[in-house]
Amino acid sequence: MIEVIAFDADDTLWHSESLYTMTQERFARLLSSYHDSESIHQELYETEKRNLKLFGYGIKGFTLSMIETAIEITDGQICGEDIQTILDYSKEMLQAPVQPLEHVVEMLNQLANSYSLMLISKGDLFDQETKLARSGLARYFQIVEIVSEKLPATYEKVLLKQNLLANQFMMVGNSLRSDILPVLAVGGHAVYIPYHPTWAHEVVEDGVPQSPNYYELENIGQLPDLVKKLSSGR
């Protein structure tokens, strides 16, 4: 019997990746006199991946990766004014409105009275906490976990901390890599809701997971009916 339903935050409850995509386009235009857009995007992505183990996830690490990429692409010739422009991009991202996805509020209202709701998000602690507050959704969650990475061991620690069995736990998210496969690996229920665009780092090439605990929905508004169906044993 499912007792706790956990949600990813970015691109599951509110828009996020579209903000990164827009900023990457602005970044490519800023450096367009040095290189073509495709090469700039690829160089930035490689820099981000390389820096994850140092800076973790989130806008601040993304900003440092943009600055490093700009220095590399311009052979150190980028001017202070352009560095300031990159920092301004970052500040705009950090202060951007947090817009819940369609159906999210209605879905949370339907589930909040019957289940304990949890938020499990990876990234910068301050950024994620402030986004949750600005989203207006904080009141729905009894438990909030901000983690540096989402691995099977991460979810095992959450289950142990909350005194839960894996089959009492459901995770809902838009990333197969972070929200779905690790939860299935520990025996929990996992609901995949695709979001476009998705960051390339979160994409997996292995196809649909083969597990009786795996579910895929078109939108998050379908979640209450799925939970009801599973709870009734049908």
User: For this structure, what is the CATH homologous superfamily of the largest domain?
Assistant: HAD superfamily/HAD-like
Provide the CATH top-level class of the largest domain.
Answer: Alpha Beta
The SSE string, one letter per element, is EHHHHHEHEHEHEEH
User: Spans with pLDDT under 50 lasting ≥5 residues?
Assistant: none
pLDDT averaged residue by residue: 93
Compile the SSE list and pairings.
Layout: E1 4-7, H1 17-30, H2 37-55, H3 59-73, H4 80-94, H5 104-111, E2 116-122, H6 125-135, E3 143-147, H7 152-161, E4 169-173, H8 176-185, E5 189-192, E6 214-216, H9 223-232
Parallel strand pairs: 1-2, 1-4, 2-3, 4-5, 5-6
Helix pairs in contact: 1-2, 1-4, 2-3, 3-4
Characterization of the model:
The structure is a single chain. The protein has nine helices and six strands. It has helices at 17-30, 37-55, 59-73, 80-94, 104-111, 125-135, 152-161, 176-185, 223-232; strands at 4-7, 116-122, 143-147, 169-173, 189-192, 214-216. It folds into two domains: 4-15 and 98-232, HAD superfamily/HAD-like (Rossmann fold), CATH 3.40.50; 17-94, Putative phosphatase, domain 2 (DNA polymerase, domain 1, Orthogonal Bundle). It has a six-stranded parallel beta sheet with strand order 3-2-1-4-5-6, with helices on both faces. It has 234 residues and is an alpha/beta fold. It is elongated, with a radius of gyration of 19 Å.
